[in-house]
Amino acid sequence: MDANLLITLQNYGLSEKEARVYLTVLELGTSIASTIARRAELNRVTVYTILEDLKRDGIVNETTKEGVKYYSVISPDILLKQLEQKYESFKEKVPELLAMAEKFGNKIKVQFFEWVEWIVKMYGDLLVSNKEAIHSFLWLEEMQPALSKRLFGNFVPQRIKLKIPAKVIVSNHEANKNYKSMDKKSLKETHIIKSDIFSLNGEINIYGENKVMIAMFNDKEMSGIIIHSKSMHDSLKSIFNLVWKIK
After folding, report:
1. What single DSSP character describes residue 132?
2. What CATH number is associated with residue 19?
3. pTM of the full predicted structure?
4. Per DSSP, what are the bridge partners of residue 68?
5. Does 133 fall in a domain?
6. Which of 57, 90, 122, 230 is a Cys-bridge partner for 113, taking CB atoms 3.0 to 4.6 Å apart?
7. 154-164: b or e for each residue (b if 16 or more CB lie within 10 Å)?
8. Pairing of strands 60-65, 211-217
9. Are residues 126 and 40 in the same domain?
């Protein structure tokens, strides 16, 4: 399956699994769920759920023949029109949303995320940080393999493509041994400090003009938050700059 097409569909709002199902059905034309699951390399129960979600969104069509359900998808040009309509609808509401946001004044706003799909979407918010480098405290050892694959295979290439640099502080733990060697090709600068003075579970990202992301990405605590606070952003960035100077 073409990785670029998967990324393109995800950029337009589909999850990774939804994109896989859409491309699989597009290739098959019309098929039953078990065949779709096998070709997409996904669990059949998961595929049934995705098909129902996409059917509700008007992306998948369902027909029944002799008691068996067959699925097909709308053509890419119709999908594009649907996505454009959603974009225009949202665009029309932006003034109202901004007016609502202003009512909160300087109150801290917090967004919560859980499990791989939503954690990946959470990391997508880092891509708005196009005025300054993303400043990160990172501990790679705890990262769940499926999440690691998604972030390094999708998010990082997008960040590089958008030319958003990153400054990352990690410890000299074994898990981080080869991380610094990827600096040049990954558009990042890594600062390594001794693990006896720096220990972290997960990752803290300071980005944009007023955002802080805290992620826990092991199997037991797959969750994260984005905090909208100029004061917290500036305070943590100041701490980051202080730690950055540690030899």
Report:
1. S
2. 1.10.10.10
3. 0.56
4. 65
5. yes
6. 122
7. bbbebbeeeeb
8. unpaired
9. no
